[in-house]
Amino acid sequence: MSTLRRFFILSFFLFTTISLFSSELKSKLEALPGVVYVEELKTSDFFTEKYLILFEQYLDPAVPEIGIFRQRVFLSHKSYDAPVVYITEGYNADYAESQNYTNELSKILDANQICVEHRYFAESVPLEFDWSYLTTSLAAGDHHIIRNAFKDLYAGKWVSTGISKGGQTCLLYQMYYPKDVDACVAYVSPVATALEDGRHEPFINNIATKKDRKKITDFQIEVLKRRQTIFPMFEKYVQMSKLSFRIPLEEVYDYCVLEYSFAFWQWIGNTEKIPSKKEADSKLFQHLITVSGPDYFSLEGSAGTKPFLYQAAKELGYYGYETQHLEGLLKIKTAEGYFKKIFLGNDLPVDFYPQTSIDLQNFLNTKAKKTFIILGEYDPWSAAAPDVSENPNVIKVIKPAGTHATRIMNLPEEDREMVIKTLKSWME
Question: Of 53, 255, 307, 384, whose CA is between 20 and 30 Å from 150?
Answer without folding.
Answer: 307
